[in-house]
Amino acid sequence: MALLDIKGIDVSYGKSLTVKNCSIALDPAKICSVVGESGSGKTTVIRAVLGLLPGGGSVTAGDIVYENRSLLKLSKGEWRSLRGRDISMIFQDSGAMMNQTRLIGKSFVEYIRTHESISKQDAWKKGAEMLGRMRLPDPDRIMNSYPFQLSGGMRQRVGIAMGMTYQPRLLLADEPTSALDVTTQAQIVRQMMELRDEYGTSIIIVTHDIGVAAYMADHVVVMKDGRIEDQGERGYILNDSTNAYTRKLIKAVPSLGGKRYV
Amino acid sequence: MFDEKDLLLEARHVTRRFSTPSGRELVACNDVNLKLYRGKTLGLVGESGCGKSTFMRFLVWLDRPTEGEILYRGKDITKLKGRQLHDMRQHIQMVFQDPSTSFNPKMKIRDIVCEPLLNYGRIRHSQRDEKARELLEMVELPGDFADRYPHNMSGGQRQRVAIARALALEPEIVVMDEATSALDVSVQETVIELITRLQREKNITIGFICHNLGFIQSFSHQIAVMYLGNIVEVMPGDQLSSLCCHPYSKALLNAVFDTKMDFSRKIEPIKGEPPSPLDVPVGCPFQDRCDQCMPICRERRPVLTEISPGHEVACHRYGEGVSA
Ligand SMILES: Nc1ncnc2c1ncn2[C@@H]1O[C@H](COP(=O)(O)OP(=O)(O)OP(=O)(O)O)[C@@H](O)[C@H]1O
Ligand SMILES: Nc1ncnc2c1ncn2[C@@H]1O[C@H](COP(=O)(O)OP(=O)(O)OP(=O)(O)O)[C@@H](O)[C@H]1O
Ligand SMILES: [Mg+2]
Ligand SMILES: [Mg+2]
């Protein structure tokens, strides 16, 4: 039985219909990669799952079912107990979303203490330990820094650390590694897959890196223009699909020693 | 490799230290020497947090180095002030990774792209419509996008607006800090086609930070690899995979996910602890993670040494460029 079943949802911002008839089913301990056009609605879909659409956005048709209950009808209290522990999210631009005037450590401690009742000192220790696992050197320096004192990729890893603090049953990861160098990216990919292997976490990962998408995925979804344009197993998407957009996307993937423009 | 008469900008012994809450000193850039040539692209790659953005920010006066100089048009631009700085600024422009955070959301696209031109008195208020249309068309966007707001556009379209704005003043140098990382590969391709075409037409010099090695080698004339604040290798862009020899550069190449890779291969992370810029070791910055580390690597810092035309490496295994 699927852990998450997105059933034919439409999502609109105000009057404009942005995502049309999108369906994705995800079993426990499976990884689904979502790739596709910039602006095609990838972020919109996974934010809809977590009930965090920005102002004006709403699901106007279909249903989102998590463990047999509709996520569209949850109360605020029910969301609070689900988010962070059961379902957690790594945001596309964690860096820009952080409160720029607060120490990283303060934000992290607050995040932890909304999800479990532990002392500030223990929460601080737990946060620092998570940062270390994201291969951030000197976790204590990071905890004592403001966001502007960190590099883009370091801020992104703080967001990843938060999303992975509790071994969630469902992890929604929006472009988690696009701000990271390839060796750090490899490490984070490995840790997401260990989360799946050890705790049975199901993952939806949105990424523009087709190599990462293919490496991680049991199932790949290709989006274009608010719709699911194509989907299937890795081998099908990479080699066999005859969908024109999928082919165009695969062909545009840059490779070492490949095409040159200068 | 490059003609020295085309040398446009040169960073000499540039170092940036930050102080940290614990009172220890953080070295973000350590004795960086780099050259940008007219009409050419320098690609800069390296580990997250190694100092790439810190370096590029000097070129657009968002920060100043603690030591060293950056020569451009015969002047050390890190020392400029007032009128001179204002005049020089128009020649060097920057595009950031996420343009939505650098645009004022309440401004229409017309005003966003024309703002620098108005600031420098290059156009009159009444010419905005015409100029905005021209700039948008240059980046292959419909001219009537001028009436939109940034949030009504997709990420790819916003990024093109950011490029149009950066090019409005016809700068000599454009710095792009992960300016294409948020775009899908197909849009990335059109953006880079556009940038390389404009580079040829206007002879623009580009400094480009990017984590995607396949992508950056497709348009860079030279590629510099940075590690823990140090430039460890510089090589011609078209020969990245064949020439690269610094153990860190090789580790980077090995970590690339490719659509043709063996998907059953387990990911082997680079060994050892990630390095701390608070605690840069004596000797080679990569020593603790290098599988070819020798005793000398723990004693002396290797300096960049040219081992073939246009190819410099800072490693005791190559050349004999050992500093005191
Ligand atoms: N708050 C909003 N109000 C109105 N329109 C929006 C809003 N957020 C997004 N949109 C629009 O909805 C569409 C889908 O946006 P979304 O962010 O989901 O795309 P995406 O696939 O995640 O793109 P990217 O790859 O660039 O992150 C885009 O056309 C965008 O302009
Ligand atoms: N204003 C600041 N105050 C203190 N430390 C800073 C400041 N700006 C940057 N640093 C530190 O300098 C180092 C280099 O940061 P920089 O942003 O240059 O990295 P980067 O190579 O661009 O990394 P990324 O690929 O993640 O963007 C980091 O350790 C960062 O924490
Ligand atoms: Mg998105
Ligand atoms: Mg950076």
Explain how this protein is built.
The complex is a heterodimer of chains A (about 260) and B (about 325). Chain A has about 260 residues and is of the alpha/beta class. Chain A has two domains: about 1-75 and about 220-230 and about 245-260, Rossmann fold, CATH 3.40.50.300; about 85-200, P-loop containing nucleotide triphosphate hydrolases (Rossmann fold). Chain A contains eleven helices and ten strands. In chain A, the strands form two sheets. A six-stranded mixed β-sheet of chain A has the order 6-7-8-3-9-10, with helices on both faces. The radius of gyration of chain A is 19 Å and the shape is globular. Chain B is α/β, with parallel strands linked by helices and about 325 residues long. Chain B has one domain: P-loop containing nucleotide triphosphate hydrolases (Rossmann fold). In chain B, about 25% of the residues lie in helices and about 25% in strands. In chain B, the strands form two sheets. An eight-stranded mixed β-sheet of chain B has the order 6-7-8-3-9-10-12-11, with helices on both faces. In chain B, strands 2-1-4-5 form a four-stranded antiparallel β-sheet, with helices on one face. In chain B, β11 (about 305-310) and β12 (about 310-315) form a beta hairpin.
Topology:
The complex is a heterodimer of chains A (about 260) and B (about 325).
Chain A: E1 4-13, E2 16-26, E3 31-36, H1 42-49, E4 57-66, E5 69-70, H2 76-82, E6 87-90, H3 94-97, H4 104-115, H5 120-133, H6 139-143, H7 152-163, E7 170-174, H8 182-199, E8 202-206, H9 210-216, E9 219-224, E10 227-232, H10 234-240, H11 244-251
Parallel strand pairs in A: 3-8, 3-9, 6-7, 7-8
Antiparallel strand pairs in A: 1-2, 1-4, 4-5, 9-10
Chain B: E1 7-19, E2 25-37, E3 41-46, H1 52-59, E4 67-72, E5 75-76, H2 82-89, E6 92-95, H3 99-102, H4 109-119, H5 128-138, H6 155-167, E7 173-177, H7 185-202, E8 205-209, H8 213-216, E9 222-227, E10 230-236, H9 240-243, H10 247-254, E11 305-308, E12 311-313
Parallel strand pairs in B: 3-8, 3-9, 6-7, 7-8
Antiparallel strand pairs in B: 1-2, 1-4, 4-5, 9-10, 10-12, 11-12
Helix pairs in contact in B: 4-5, 4-6
The complex binds adenosine-5'-triphosphate (2 copies) and magnesium ion (MG) (2 copies).
